[in-house]
Recover the amino acids of this structure.
């Protein structure tokens, strides 16, 4: 598979990770990082080589592992001297747990380790941080045996005193390997190793380093957890902490105006109330014609008589025909054609819909109710929603998820802009998981998308996935430019419900005609 297709799939991957791993993934912005609750991935170019793709997947899996398995309360008591070594141990521990829960992650972690550490020239490692680098490579070699070559090179180049210290540290690492049950355990072994290092004056193997460590030892021993200067700073290239920086740098290098950028919306919150009784009753009355029409079509298609033929189930009532030499003694059940369709309605709740929501909300409710009653798997999502954190720029709120019953809470207070493209990227992975073969998305909006490039790219991707996209725009010709003939523009609010019904009815009846043919 070409890399550009893999890169194109990454927004789907990010959204799926958000659902499966239980962590929030935001694709957008300029830097890759995580804040302990949310993974931030920069906006992605459409093209990228294999290493770039590996960085993205590995970054997502690695940070998801930390969010799932790291106890961040324990980290509050970690000193600056303990953190680098703890990172090395905890990275390996959470990745091991993640790979056990999701086996596909193991390959991503191994590829990422090859990129980050496999090409490192150990001879260039500073003697001051030789032990820290050795521990990092040692724990990584448990899953990637090819790193043993670098370990041997590092050990052979080290002085005898350093190797004596290494032999004392190695059994502690082996015990950790079989007893890595929690972040607290990783911290316990971190402190045990640092105690060994602090008791050994010859840490670096160089005269200067030895003198410096002697001078620092007296100062560091008075503070709990401050076990030696060689672990007091972050070592460039010595941790997976640099993945985000490397990834951000690689994305900046391929920053070109012609490359489309993608951002995936995340779930936010939205205050929804039940429709007033008079609006609900009016909406249900509007749904009657569509429901009656579709019900009649479905009944006609499902009441197909059994067919007599030469294959099928033997029919006793036809056995008399055998006397005349007829072989048509079997019956086959007629094909029962149903809609087999999932419909998802995207309702624009941006600020510009403030004076239109009293019509748009009930119209969407009526349409969803009619579709539900004729057996269509229906879902409704409002966009945008209110962000639950400052990091979430584009948010949506699922009013009705696929498989849920349609409720009456369609009375919504509009807010924000129109993240149409970001909402579509969020929706696609969820539509891919519904069992229905045919998938239709109906967008109701009154204005231009916040990012036209993102919206157009999302629509092209939806068509490639076989999703049928349609739009109804209110007093705005914008949607016709991106949906073309699959769009209807209305100038009066009272025309909204008929337009919604007309478009869905046409598409569903078209599907019925195709299934008959």
């Amino acid at each position: 598979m070409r890399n550009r297709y893999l890169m194109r799939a990454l927004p789907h991957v990010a959204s799926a990770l958000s659902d499966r791993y239980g962590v929030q993934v935001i694709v957008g912005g300029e830097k890759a990082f995580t804040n302990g609750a949310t993974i931030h991935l920069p906006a992605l170019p459409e093209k990228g080589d294999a290493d770039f793709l590996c960085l993205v997947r590995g970054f997502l899996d690695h940070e998801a592992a930390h969010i799932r398995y790291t106890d961040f309360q324990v980290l509050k008591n970690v000193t600056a001297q303990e953190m680098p070594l703890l990172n090395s141990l905890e990275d390996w521990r959470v990745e091991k747990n993640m790979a056990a829960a999701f086996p596909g992650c193991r390959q991503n972690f191994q590829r990422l380790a090859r990129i980050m550490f496999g090409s490192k020239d150990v001879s260039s490692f500073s003697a001051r941080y030789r032990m820290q680098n050795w521990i990092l490579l040692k724990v990584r070699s448990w899953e990637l045996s090819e790193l043993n070559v670098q370990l041997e090179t590092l050990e052979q180049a080290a002085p005898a005193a350093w190797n004596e210290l290494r032999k004392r540290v190695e059994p502690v690492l082996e015990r950790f390997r079989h007893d890595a049950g929690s972040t607290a355990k990783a911290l316990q072994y971190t402190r045990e190793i640092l105690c060994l290092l602090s008791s050994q004056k010859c840490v670096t193997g160089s005269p200067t380093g030895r003198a410096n460590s002697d001078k620092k030892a007296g100062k560091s021993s008075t503070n709990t957890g401050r076990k030696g200067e060689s672990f007091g700073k972050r070592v460039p290239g010595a941790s997976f902490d640099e993945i985000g920086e490397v990834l951000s740098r690689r994305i900046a290098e391929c920053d070109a105006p012609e490359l489309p950028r993608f951002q995936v919306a995340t779930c936010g919150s939205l205050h929804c109330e039940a429709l007033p009784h008079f609006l609900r009753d009016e909406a249900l009355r509007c749904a009657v014609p569509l429901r009656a029409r579709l019900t009649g079509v479905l009944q006609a298609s499902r009441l197909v008589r059994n067919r007599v033929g030469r294959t099928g189930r033997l029919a006793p009532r036809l056995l008399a025909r055998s006397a005349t030499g007829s072989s048509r003694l079997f019956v086959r059940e007629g094909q029962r054609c149903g809609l087999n369709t999932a419909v998802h309605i995207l309702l624009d709740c941006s600020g510009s819909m403030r004076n239109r929501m009293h019509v748009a909300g009930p119209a969407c409710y009526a349409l969803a109710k009619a579709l539900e009653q004729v057996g269509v798997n229906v879902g409704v999502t409002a966009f945008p929603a209110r962000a639950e954190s400052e990091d979430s720029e584009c948010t949506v709120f699922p009013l009705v998820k696929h498989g849920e019953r349609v409720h009456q809470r369609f009375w919504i207070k509009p807010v924000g802009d129109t993240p149409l493209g970001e909402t579509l990227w969020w929706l696609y992975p969820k539509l891919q998981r519904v069992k229905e073969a045919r998938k239709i998305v109906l967008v109701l909006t009154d204005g231009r998308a916040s990012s036209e490039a993102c919206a157009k790219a999302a629509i092209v991707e939806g068509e490639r996935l076989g999703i049928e996209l349609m739009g109804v725009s209110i007093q705005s010709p914008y949607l016709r430019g991106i949906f073309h003939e699959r769009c209807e523009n209305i100038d009066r609010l009272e025309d909204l419900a008929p337009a919604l019904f007309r478009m869905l009815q046409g598409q569903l009846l078209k599907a019925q005609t195709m299934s008959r043919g």
